[in-house]
Write a structure and sequence with these properties.
The protein has 162 residues and is mainly α. The chain is built from 6 helices and 4 strands; from the N terminus they run ααααββαββα. β1 and β2 form a beta hairpin. α3 runs antiparallel to α4, α3 packs parallel to α5 and α4 packs antiparallel against α5.
Length: 162
């Protein structure tokens, strides 16, 4: 769920042909919007991620919870006896379903979920967010490309001074 929020904030939409979206949407009987438009949700999610990463009051998370109140319930759609928590009903319209999931997950993160670490890319020209799933939670870049660009720029700056 957090990776969906990050993708939505970074790109303004979701890759409808990507594995992540296909798995989540198909499994929960959600039809992605044909034009990939999610209205103002990407901007609100980006604001919420900014507040969480910057450790400022999570006003955008409150707004998400207000605009997309989660409908918490138990589901065993993976098979009998495999109960787990869902925050939206299967078949809900895509924007509302995604809003409910993201609102619930970001609220849990704001409340101190230790299983998730969010970050913003340290590359000078990048503003992307990322979910840090590294073993020691020290990731600094959203991608290998940003890490490489930063490393090359630092190397060139050092060699130019010599």
């Amino acid at each position: 769920m957090t990776r969906l929020a990050v993708e939505l904030a970074n790109t303004g939409t979701l890759d409808q042909h990507g594995d992540l979206v296909a798995a989540f949407f198909d499994e929960h009987e959600i039809t992605p919007p044909p034009d990939g438009a999610y209205g103002t949700l990407p901007h609100l999610v980006a604001a919420a991620l900014t507040q969480l990463v910057d450790a400022t009051p999570p006003e955008a998370v409150h707004q998400l919870l207000h605009d997309y109140p989660p409908e918490m319930h138990l589901s065993d759609h993976d098979g009998p006896g495999t109960w787990h928590i869902h925050f939206s009903r299967n078949g809900t319209p895509a924007r509302h379903w995604l809003g409910q999931l993201v609102a619930a997950k970001l609220a849990l993160i704001a409340a101190g979920d230790p299983a998730v670490t969010l970050g913003r890319c340290a590359a000078a020209t990048c503003t992307n967010f990322f979910v840090d799933q590294s073993r020691n939670r020290t990731r600094r870049f959203c991608s290998n490309a940003c890490a490489s660009r930063t490393t090359v720029a630092a190397y060139r700056a050092r060699t130019a001074q010599e």
